[in-house]
Structure formats: structure tokens, C-alpha cells
Description:
Layout: H1 3-16, E1 25-28, H2 32-40, E2 48-51, H3 54-62, H4 70-73, E3 76-81, E4 85-86, E5 92-93, H5 100-108, E6 110-118, E7 132-136, H6 141-150, E8 154-157, E9 168-173, H7 180-188, E10 193-196, E11 198-199, E12 206-211, E13 214-219
Helix pairs in contact: 1-2
The site of ribulose-5-phosphate has 17 residues, from helix 2 and helix 5.
Amino acid sequence: MTDNQQQQKQAAAQAALAYIETGMILGVGTGSTVNCLIDLLPQVQLKGAVASSNVTAEKLTALGIEVMDLNLTGTLDLYIDGADEVDSQHNLIKGGGGALTREKIVAAASRQFICLVDASKTVNQLGVDFPVPIEVLPQARSYVARQLVELGGEPVYREGFVTDYGNVILDVYGLDVRDPLAMEQRLNNIVGVVCNGIFAVNRADIVLKATADGVQTLRT
Ligand code: 5RP
């Protein structure tokens, strides 16, 4: 990561603070961009936070922020997370860090999803440069991989990686994601798939895109 990219991540995180209200229970994503936001959260008087991964939960706890159970919070007002790719309609690819399933759950359970990206993350079409991560039940790995090949993809097993839920990840290159919603639903229909990294149903409401010239607020 370049210094410039790190500065952009920090700028996007700083811009996100304006959307966080005192007393809120905030949904908090996972990754290096969101880590910049987590570092700023002590400035805000949160009621608590719902974490999208064990790593994020540990970081929040270390800062004295109460990590709450999504089953007890009800619908959240706001979820903030990064992404690996974002298109012009705010469909996303997520899961580079392997936390896609809980990220999608918290995004789905939130009224608003704000996505923080640096300029390198915006693309014309999802899945051309970055593979689609898919969380798979370990026993179904080979079966799911064969189904993905039939769909035109090239699945690569993320060796040595186990998700927070004890599952494995297949990173799928070459999938045709021209219609993100259709591909998200098609992947969900493969038995053994826990979750896929296309966020079209739960795309971002607002993208805060940091560039060399400042942070742009993009709304669909
Ligand atoms: C983790 C994710 C992250 O949001 C995504 O990988 C972006 O990470 P970073 O902010 O480090 O570039 O989906 O599962």
C-alpha cells in the first residue's frame, strides 16, 4: 500500500465521522480502511458497536467500546465498511479479508450502509481485476469448485485460511459479473456456499471515495 493510499483511507474514515451520531449502535466492518475509522471512534460517544469480525471486535474492545450481539440490538441505523471493488451503482465485491459473511449479515441488518474506499477501488465492472471470494462449508469445497467452473469461473482455494465461522474461502477469477444481482443470487443457490462476496442486494447507500483531491460523497 502506498503512503498516498493510506492517506486516502484515513481521509475517507475521517469523512465518515459526520454520519455517526451520539448514542448510536454502529455496525463496524473489517479491513485496513475501517481500521482507520476504528481509531477515530473514541471521539464519538457510541452506545456500542456490532462487529463484522473477531478482529474488529478485538480492536473495538481494546478501545473500550462495547461490542454488542446483533441478535439483541435490533436493526442498526448505520453500517460502515470498506470494499475491494465498487461499481457506479455501488454494487461491491467484499471478502478480501475473509469476513464477508458477517459483513453481509450486519449490512443487511442496517438501515444505511456507508462504504469507504480509496480511489483504487472504483471499477467499471466488478470481478474483472479482483476475484469474487466465496465462503464455503469445508466438506463442500470440491463440489462447489466444480459448480463454479461450470459457471465459467476459476476458483482458487485460499490455502491456510479459516473464516470466523470455521469455513474455507474460494477466490473465484473470471466470473461474469456484468449483472451483479443475478450472479450474487446464482452463487447463493449452490449447495455448500455459505455466502458470496458480491454485495448487490446489500449494496452501499453512500460511497465515500477518497481521491488525491479530497473525499467525494457518491449517492446512487
Ligand atoms: C474484508 C473486506 C474488506 O472490507 C475489504 O477487503 C477491503 O479491505 P481494505 O480496507 O483493507 O482494503 O471485505 O472481508
